[in-house]
Design goal:
Number of strands: 13
Shape: globular
Structural class: alpha/beta
CATH class: Alpha Beta
Helix content: 25-40%
CATH superfamily: Vaccinia Virus protein VP39
Order of helices and strands: EEHEHEHEHEEHEHEHEEEEH
Strand content: 25-35%
Mean pLDDT: 90
Largest sheet: 9 strands, mixed
CATH architecture: 3-Layer(aba) Sandwich
Number of domains: 1
């Protein structure tokens, strides 16, 4: 390990990547789980205001929390991360971007006491997408731990709901094919559910969904129009190809507002 680099990483094992058009500089491993647009979209969808408290379950290197902190000032940011080396990166990323992110290392299935004693205005999560029983796996251990669903989705949702304050929100991003499971689990613990599909291109089916619930909410379920991610019918470069509304979220830090 090279002195000055977090966790078990050496300098050549890490990349420093731009998020929000360069407003954030994020260290993350070159191999293993790498944050992309998913945590940015998750952060943009949270209806936070200054002074709110945020808990990011499975925070990884801190991208969702730090994107949220860059958009909304004076938030109290907390994260839970299973892997020590990713938690160390999240702490360093927060410091490097002049933010405070209180990261606890621990398991969502066995919430550390210091978090069990707290409640939060908003709980967010980009949980592992792949059920290990499905046969999908990643070759890299860190990526496998980040993407493989060791803890059932039901536990992620139940834990998030427990940590939400009264009238607080819980927001997840997940694969569209898991939407029925996610809706069912959220409905056990939360109300006022709202779902926004994330659609690769016009005419395609959604690959991801954002689902938000409110603790104690009583409003009916709402299915919003989907956010179309890419313009045109073919891919034409990672940055140039995003639709205008999506680009404003990803590059300018604009909020992703669920229609009222």
């Amino acid at each position: 390990m090279t002195k000055g680099w977090p966790g078990s990483w050496s300098a050549d094992q890490l990349s420093r990547d731009d998020f929000l058009g360069g407003r954030l500089k994020i260290l993350q491993p070159r191999r293993g789980y790498r944050a992309g647009v998913d945590p940015v979209l998750l952060a943009a969808s949270v209806p936070a205001v200054p002074g709110d408290s945020i808990l990011d379950l499975g925070c990884g290197v801190g991208v969702a929390s730090l994107c949220l902190g860059a958009r909304v000032p004076d938030l109290v940011l907390s994260g839970l991360e299973l892997q020590d080396n990713y938690a160390d990166l999240a702490r360093q990323n927060a410091s490097a971007n002049s933010q405070i992110l209180d990261v606890t290392t621990g398991d969502v299935a066995d919430m550390p006491l210091r978090l069990r004693q707290k409640s939060f205005t908003h709980v967010i999560s980009n949980p592992p997408y792949f059920n290990r029983n499905s046969g999908s796996s990643a070759q890299d251990e860190g990526r496998e731990a980040a993407l493989g669903e060791d803890v059932p989705l039901a536990i992620w949702v139940k834990t998030a709901a427990k940590r939400a304050a009264p009238k607080g929100t819980v927001t997840f991003i997940h694969r569209a094919e898991r939407a029925p499971d996610l809706i069912g689990e959220m409905a056990r613990h939360l109300g006022s559910l709202e779902l926004m599909p994330l659609i690769p291109r016009t005419g395609r089916t959604a690959r991801l969904v954002l689902l938000r619930g409110r603790k104690g909410g009583r409003a009916d379920f709402r299915l919003h129009d989907g956010l179309v991610m890419h313009a045109g019918v073919v891919h034409d470069g990672d940055r140039k190809n995003y639709a205008k509304a999506t680009a404003s979220v990803l590059w300018e830090g604009a909020p992703l507002i669920f229609p009222g």
